[in-house]
Amino acid sequence: MDLQLENKLFLVGGATSGLGRAIAEQLVAEGANVLAVARTESKLQELQQLSNGIEIIAGDLSQPEVLNAILTKIGNRVLTGAVINSGGPPAMPVMDTKLSDWDAAYKTVVRWKIGLTQALLPKMMEHSYGRLLFIESVSTKQPVENLVLSNAMRLAITGYVKTLSQEIGASGVTLNILGPGYHATQRMENLFAKNSELKGIPEAEIRKSFSAQTAVKAIGKPANFASLAVWMLSPYSGYITGQTITVDGGLVKGTMG
Q: From the record, what ranges are coiled-coil (predicted)?
Protein backbone atom coordinates (compact mmCIF):
# COMPACT_ATOMS: atom_id res chain seq x y z
CA MET A 1 0.00 0.00 0.00
CA ASP A 2 1.40 3.38 -1.01
CA LEU A 3 0.93 5.70 1.98
CA GLN A 4 1.65 8.79 -0.17
CA LEU A 5 4.50 9.96 2.05
CA GLU A 6 7.28 10.15 -0.50
CA ASN A 7 9.35 13.36 -0.17
CA LYS A 8 7.08 14.63 2.61
CA LEU A 9 8.77 16.13 5.67
CA PHE A 10 8.13 14.75 9.16
CA LEU A 11 9.49 15.68 12.56
CA VAL A 12 10.19 12.72 14.87
CA GLY A 13 11.06 13.20 18.53
CA GLY A 14 12.96 10.56 20.47
CA ALA A 15 14.10 9.25 17.12
CA THR A 16 17.16 7.22 18.11
CA SER A 17 15.61 4.51 20.27
CA GLY A 18 12.51 2.49 20.96
CA LEU A 19 9.26 3.49 19.28
CA GLY A 20 10.62 6.77 17.92
CA ARG A 21 13.40 4.99 16.08
CA ALA A 22 10.99 2.41 14.66
CA ILE A 23 8.73 5.19 13.36
CA ALA A 24 11.65 7.10 11.82
CA GLU A 25 12.86 3.95 10.07
CA GLN A 26 9.44 3.18 8.60
CA LEU A 27 8.94 6.77 7.42
CA VAL A 28 12.26 6.56 5.59
CA ALA A 29 11.21 3.22 4.10
CA GLU A 30 8.13 5.00 2.70
CA GLY A 31 10.35 7.58 1.02
CA ALA A 32 9.66 10.36 3.50
CA ASN A 33 12.17 12.92 4.75
CA VAL A 34 12.70 12.91 8.51
CA LEU A 35 13.90 15.62 10.86
CA ALA A 36 15.11 13.47 13.74
CA VAL A 37 15.48 14.90 17.25
CA ALA A 38 17.11 13.15 20.20
CA ARG A 39 19.56 13.92 22.97
CA THR A 40 22.59 11.93 21.80
CA GLU A 41 24.49 13.22 18.77
CA SER A 42 26.33 9.94 18.13
CA LYS A 43 23.08 7.96 17.97
CA LEU A 44 21.58 10.55 15.63
CA GLN A 45 24.58 10.24 13.34
CA GLU A 46 24.13 6.47 13.33
CA LEU A 47 20.46 6.91 12.38
CA GLN A 48 21.40 9.36 9.65
CA GLN A 49 23.38 6.62 7.89
CA LEU A 50 20.07 4.98 6.93
CA SER A 51 19.06 7.64 4.42
CA ASN A 52 20.04 10.92 2.82
CA GLY A 53 16.54 12.06 3.75
CA ILE A 54 17.33 12.22 7.47
CA GLU A 55 18.32 15.52 9.07
CA ILE A 56 19.28 15.62 12.74
CA ILE A 57 19.04 17.92 15.74
CA ALA A 58 20.69 16.92 19.01
CA GLY A 59 19.10 18.21 22.19
CA ASP A 60 16.37 17.98 24.79
CA LEU A 61 12.94 18.77 23.36
CA SER A 62 11.95 20.48 26.59
CA GLN A 63 14.57 23.19 26.04
CA PRO A 64 13.63 26.41 24.14
CA GLU A 65 16.84 26.39 22.09
CA VAL A 66 15.92 22.99 20.63
CA LEU A 67 12.48 24.27 19.60
CA ASN A 68 14.18 27.23 17.94
CA ALA A 69 16.56 24.88 16.14
CA ILE A 70 13.62 22.82 14.86
CA LEU A 71 11.84 25.89 13.50
CA THR A 72 15.04 27.13 11.88
CA LYS A 73 15.68 23.75 10.27
CA ILE A 74 12.14 23.57 8.88
CA GLY A 75 12.37 27.12 7.56
CA ASN A 76 9.91 27.73 4.74
CA ARG A 77 9.40 24.07 3.97
CA VAL A 78 6.04 22.37 4.44
CA LEU A 79 5.96 20.12 7.49
CA THR A 80 3.50 17.31 6.78
CA GLY A 81 3.47 15.78 10.24
CA ALA A 82 5.13 15.50 13.62
CA VAL A 83 5.63 12.61 16.02
CA ILE A 84 5.60 14.24 19.44
CA ASN A 85 7.49 11.72 21.49
CA SER A 86 10.04 11.66 24.28
CA GLY A 87 10.95 9.72 27.37
CA GLY A 88 8.77 9.76 30.46
CA PRO A 89 9.38 10.58 34.12
CA PRO A 90 11.03 8.08 36.49
CA ALA A 91 9.13 5.11 37.82
CA MET A 92 7.96 5.39 41.42
CA PRO A 93 4.89 4.75 43.58
CA VAL A 94 2.72 7.65 44.80
CA MET A 95 4.06 7.76 48.35
CA ASP A 96 7.66 8.08 47.17
CA THR A 97 7.00 11.25 45.15
CA LYS A 98 7.90 14.78 46.21
CA LEU A 99 6.39 18.00 44.84
CA SER A 100 9.64 18.57 42.97
CA ASP A 101 9.05 15.26 41.15
CA TRP A 102 5.65 16.53 40.00
CA ASP A 103 7.14 19.83 38.82
CA ALA A 104 9.77 17.96 36.83
CA ALA A 105 7.20 15.54 35.40
CA TYR A 106 5.07 18.44 34.14
CA LYS A 107 8.08 19.79 32.26
CA THR A 108 9.02 16.34 30.95
CA VAL A 109 5.59 15.19 29.78
CA VAL A 110 3.34 18.24 29.28
CA ARG A 111 4.86 21.69 28.93
CA TRP A 112 7.18 21.24 25.95
CA LYS A 113 4.54 19.36 23.94
CA ILE A 114 2.17 22.29 24.20
CA GLY A 115 4.94 24.68 23.22
CA LEU A 116 5.94 22.56 20.22
CA THR A 117 2.32 22.20 19.10
CA GLN A 118 1.73 25.94 19.35
CA ALA A 119 4.84 26.54 17.24
CA LEU A 120 4.04 23.99 14.50
CA LEU A 121 0.28 24.30 14.23
CA PRO A 122 -0.07 27.73 12.56
CA LYS A 123 2.09 26.71 9.58
CA MET A 124 0.13 23.48 9.15
CA MET A 125 -3.13 25.39 9.26
CA GLU A 126 -1.83 27.79 6.60
CA HIS A 127 -1.56 24.79 4.27
CA SER A 128 -4.86 23.25 5.47
CA TYR A 129 -3.08 19.98 6.21
CA GLY A 130 -1.08 18.34 8.97
CA ARG A 131 -0.75 15.30 11.20
CA LEU A 132 0.20 15.70 14.86
CA LEU A 133 0.72 12.33 16.52
CA PHE A 134 1.45 12.17 20.24
CA ILE A 135 3.10 9.01 21.59
CA GLU A 136 1.91 8.69 25.18
CA SER A 137 1.13 5.49 27.10
CA VAL A 138 -1.46 2.83 27.75
CA SER A 139 -1.82 4.63 31.09
CA THR A 140 -4.13 7.08 29.33
CA LYS A 141 -6.70 4.28 29.62
CA GLN A 142 -5.44 2.19 32.54
CA PRO A 143 -2.82 3.14 35.18
CA VAL A 144 0.51 1.31 35.13
CA GLU A 145 1.87 0.17 38.48
CA ASN A 146 4.66 2.34 39.95
CA LEU A 147 4.31 4.96 37.20
CA VAL A 148 2.14 7.53 38.96
CA LEU A 149 3.90 10.55 37.43
CA SER A 150 3.37 9.24 33.91
CA ASN A 151 -0.16 8.03 34.68
CA ALA A 152 -1.24 11.49 35.81
CA MET A 153 0.63 13.74 33.40
CA ARG A 154 -0.23 11.84 30.23
CA LEU A 155 -3.91 12.30 31.02
CA ALA A 156 -3.29 16.05 30.81
CA ILE A 157 -2.14 15.55 27.22
CA THR A 158 -5.29 13.60 26.35
CA GLY A 159 -7.41 16.51 27.58
CA TYR A 160 -5.31 18.99 25.63
CA VAL A 161 -5.38 17.00 22.39
CA LYS A 162 -9.11 16.32 22.57
CA THR A 163 -9.93 19.97 23.23
CA LEU A 164 -7.65 21.31 20.51
CA SER A 165 -8.90 18.76 17.96
CA GLN A 166 -12.43 20.05 18.52
CA GLU A 167 -11.39 23.67 18.16
CA ILE A 168 -9.53 23.20 14.86
CA GLY A 169 -11.43 20.24 13.44
CA ALA A 170 -12.18 21.86 10.09
CA SER A 171 -8.60 23.04 9.50
CA GLY A 172 -7.27 19.91 7.80
CA VAL A 173 -4.93 19.25 10.71
CA THR A 174 -5.59 16.17 12.84
CA LEU A 175 -4.30 15.44 16.33
CA ASN A 176 -4.26 11.94 17.78
CA ILE A 177 -2.59 9.94 20.52
CA LEU A 178 -1.15 6.44 20.38
CA GLY A 179 -0.88 4.78 23.77
CA PRO A 180 1.71 2.01 23.67
CA GLY A 181 1.44 -0.84 26.12
CA TYR A 182 4.39 -3.08 26.91
CA HIS A 183 6.86 -2.95 24.02
CA ALA A 184 10.44 -4.13 23.79
CA THR A 185 12.12 -0.79 24.50
CA GLN A 186 14.70 0.54 26.94
CA ARG A 187 11.90 2.31 28.79
CA MET A 188 10.32 -1.07 29.53
CA GLU A 189 13.65 -2.51 30.62
CA ASN A 190 13.92 0.35 33.13
CA LEU A 191 10.43 -0.42 34.39
CA PHE A 192 11.25 -4.12 34.77
CA ALA A 193 14.35 -3.20 36.77
CA LYS A 194 12.41 -0.81 39.04
CA ASN A 195 9.72 -3.39 39.76
CA SER A 196 12.38 -6.02 40.41
CA GLU A 197 14.02 -3.70 42.94
CA LEU A 198 10.75 -2.80 44.68
CA LYS A 199 9.44 -6.37 44.87
CA GLY A 200 12.68 -8.30 45.33
CA ILE A 201 11.83 -10.54 42.35
CA PRO A 202 14.22 -11.38 39.46
CA GLU A 203 13.75 -9.25 36.34
CA ALA A 204 12.98 -12.33 34.27
CA GLU A 205 9.98 -13.05 36.49
CA ILE A 206 8.84 -9.44 36.30
CA ARG A 207 9.06 -9.56 32.49
CA LYS A 208 7.02 -12.76 32.43
CA SER A 209 4.37 -11.23 34.69
CA PHE A 210 4.03 -8.19 32.43
CA SER A 211 3.56 -10.42 29.39
CA ALA A 212 0.92 -12.40 31.25
CA GLN A 213 -1.15 -9.24 31.80
CA THR A 214 -1.83 -8.91 28.06
CA ALA A 215 -4.41 -10.86 26.10
CA VAL A 216 -1.77 -12.01 23.61
CA LYS A 217 0.68 -12.99 26.39
CA ALA A 218 3.60 -11.18 24.81
CA ILE A 219 5.61 -7.97 24.80
CA GLY A 220 5.00 -5.88 21.67
CA LYS A 221 7.45 -5.24 18.83
CA PRO A 222 8.30 -1.59 18.08
CA ALA A 223 8.08 -2.21 14.32
CA ASN A 224 4.45 -3.31 14.62
CA PHE A 225 3.62 -0.20 16.63
CA ALA A 226 5.38 1.96 14.05
CA SER A 227 3.31 0.53 11.19
CA LEU A 228 0.16 1.99 12.75
CA ALA A 229 1.90 5.27 13.60
CA VAL A 230 3.04 5.77 10.01
CA TRP A 231 -0.47 5.06 8.72
CA MET A 232 -1.79 7.65 11.19
CA LEU A 233 0.68 10.13 9.66
CA SER A 234 -0.65 9.46 6.17
CA PRO A 235 -3.53 11.05 4.23
CA TYR A 236 -5.61 7.91 4.84
CA SER A 237 -6.15 8.84 8.50
CA GLY A 238 -7.86 12.14 7.69
CA TYR A 239 -11.20 11.19 9.27
CA ILE A 240 -9.60 10.33 12.62
CA THR A 241 -8.92 13.15 15.07
CA GLY A 242 -8.97 13.68 18.83
CA GLN A 243 -8.59 9.96 19.46
CA THR A 244 -6.48 8.05 21.96
CA ILE A 245 -5.76 4.62 20.52
CA THR A 246 -4.03 2.07 22.70
CA VAL A 247 -1.63 -0.41 21.10
CA ASP A 248 -1.32 -2.84 23.95
CA GLY A 249 -1.91 -6.47 23.02
CA GLY A 250 -5.18 -6.44 24.95
CA LEU A 251 -3.70 -5.08 28.19
CA VAL A 252 -6.53 -2.63 28.85
CA LYS A 253 -9.49 -4.57 30.19
CA GLY A 254 -12.13 -1.85 29.90
CA THR A 255 -14.49 -1.78 26.91
CA MET A 256 -13.26 1.74 26.01
CA GLY A 257 -9.59 0.67 25.85
A: none
Whether 47 contacts 36, CB under 8 Å: yes
Q: What's the predicted TM-score (pTM) here? A: 0.95
Tens of pLDDT along 216-249?
Answer: 999 999 999 999 999 999 999 999 999 999 999 9
Q: Which of 57, 75, 69, 53 is nearest to 15 (CA)?
A: 57
At a CB cut-off of 8 Å and minimum separation 6, what does 71 contact?
Answer: 119
Determine the structural domain holding residue 168 and report its residue range. 9-181+220-244
Of 222, 221, 189, nearest to 206 by C-alpha is 189
Domain assignment of residue 206, yes or no: no
In a domain, 195, yes or no: no
How far is Cα 122 from Cα 245, in angstroms, rounded to an integer? 25
**Domain harbouring 173, CATH code:** 3.40.50.720
Could you give phi then psi for residue 76, rounded to 5 degrees? -95, 5
Structural domains in the chain (count): 1
| Backbone φ, ψ for residue 13 (5° rounding) | -85, 155
Tell me, rounded to whole angstroms, the distance of Cα 43 from its chain centroid: 18
Query: How far apart are the C-alpha atoms of 83 and 27, rounded to whole Å?
Result: 11
Contacts 24+ apart (CB under 8 A), 194-202: 194/91, 194/92, 194/146, 195/91, 195/145, 195/146, 198/93, 198/146
What is the SS3 assignment for 216? Answer: coil
